[in-house]
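Many introductory courses stop at the sequence. We go one step further.
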Amino acid sequence: MTMNNDQATVIQYYKAREVQAILSCGRSKIYELMESGDLKSVRMGGARRIPQTALVEYQQRLEKERVRIEKERFQRIRSSHE
């Protein structure tokens, strides 16, 4: 919990298996993302947790990459028809 100007902000933390369900991927992929730093995580005792903010950031990066790939694909198709 962080305090700022007498307001408390509660950050939700997810277990790896919860993030697996959200991202529809396997356990090993989640740990690979955490180890590489692509998905930020924190240690809480002996367990790893993923802050909600880190999950949102990761999802936003995935979406930006998807849009970039689609734009490139569209440009290739367009230039091949000219």
